[in-house]
Structure prediction request, 321 residues.
Amino acid sequence: MDEFRLIERFFRRDSKSSEVVVGIGDDGAVVKSGINEQTVLVTDTLVAGVHFPERTAPQDLGYKLLAVNLSDLAAMGATPNWFLLNLVMPDADESWLQGFSTGLFSLAEEYSVALIGGDTARGPLCVSATVGGHVRSGTALRRNGAQVGDQLWISGTLGDAAIGLDLLGGVLGATGEDMDYLVGRLNRPKPRIELGLSLGAVATSGIDISDGLLADLGHILKESGALGAIVDVSCLPLSPQAIGACGESLAREKALTGGDDYEICFTANPAQRSQIEQLRHNCNVKLTCIGSIRTLAGIGLTGADNLDLTGIKPGYRHDWL
Ligand code: ADP
Ligand code: MG
Prediction:
């Protein structure tokens, strides 16, 4: 049984609370907190050997834990405020803890998010955080608002983190500088908070790409009413480092299916194009139109003539056999 079926079957219930504005099924939950503001809550867990290689430096792990949570807040268009931290560790190694907290707080300070509590226990290494933020009432960016004819946009570049992981595993090789860049993209993803805050005015839907473009775009399409999309693979934004490490064909495949990039995928009416071009400058992030939303369900690929995409998996999914 995979994670999504499991959640549907055992945990998705009709909400009895009038406080809940958005429940299970989006990047974060939204609850009432005032007349003008709503609270947005996200949580994410990183398990050693599953979400990060066991040898990951503690500084990077601390940074990444908060970054992946902030990324979910970015995908909701929310401003971060505070977080809770849960640590399960096999031992209390002081230099590990020093490194982890340094990485964690470097990002917490950058976004002025306060650590307000958590839980600590002995066990196999697993770290988790819950982050709270806020939006103006009714402005949270949802997965379910995509419309037929919308353009499909991506921030930054895709595939870098998956290639970084392959470099660490010795599956691929790269020059020292390219290796540092790509492994850096895996270990220290940039949460697109500023972009998320600006998207409310232009986007119809949004999600952060944690599992792979095809998988996460699939969530937007499903939640928006079984819509489809056409993606021009030749338009996928790739870094020169990604192309350098594995060549253009494999880099495009990684961009479609690789997880851990934490870029934002969003949809917007074509009339918003010039506003979006403006956001590139205001938020200092590359934004690329890679396709559009259509009625025909599923994701169609164009511009993939030189790629062998038979048997590709759309992205990462936790599974229990
Ligand atoms: P994301 O990739 O944005 O972190 P996930 O794919 O992990 O989101 O989760 C999909 C949705 O299911 C989210 O809305 C999440 O809050 C919800 N969810 C995940 N695990 C559970 C759980 N154990 N109980 C209830 N809801 C869950
Ligand atoms: Mg998400």
